[in-house]
Amino acid sequence: MRALRILLIVVVVLGGLFVAADRLAVNFAEGEVADRLKAQENLDTAPDVSINGFPFLTQVVGGELDDVEVTMDGYEATAGGDGTETVRIDDLKAHMRGVEFSGDYSSATAATASGTATVSYAELLKAAGSEPAQIAPGVTAGIVGLSDGGNGKIDVALEATVLGTKLPEPVHVLSSVTVEDNKVGVSADSLPVFGSVKVTDAQIRQITDFQQAIDELPGGIQLDKVEAAKDGVEITVTGSDVRLAG
Question: What InterPro entries does the record point to (predicted)?
Fold first, then answer.
């Protein structure tokens, strides 16, 4: 019985040492991956990196991590065109699965990735332009606000001047939001009428409909789905062979 007790104590101690060593190793690895991502993506601060699954050391021996979660806020993605414009991405959270890595963590590639992010309405409004424009003889209009319209729609507020008179209240248009080729598109479901002045659908859509390109997301992940929500447009991202580092 005494020998059995000693054996149990030894097992518990060794198990505790293994767990402690495993946690130290995973903390080191998370820090290394975060630093690599910060440098690679030119971030102001290092992202939060969590390597999930236990034990970590057996994953290291196998050369592949089951699940790596990366969280970053305030990521500036290129907004298309000549690359001088950017769009801020908030609350970007991505799960990377099947992550193969080099021994010094200088390179790491995930077989698949999925996640979510948010583009605020204030940020999306930049793509709509801030200056009113003449859309037809006698009618000038421009988008002055975007907000949650409910049921996955965006409420687009238009300020308009008709025959020299500014309308006392903004005109509200419910719009759908879509994504294609890494571009978030906003398109009016129905178009407003500006009094007795005849304005064609094409003329109105010059103002109500617009796109926001979102290029060069971290690791090459791509936009998949979008939906209007309370604080902005919620985006689903996916990818394969996604680079975490190197």
Answer: DUF2993
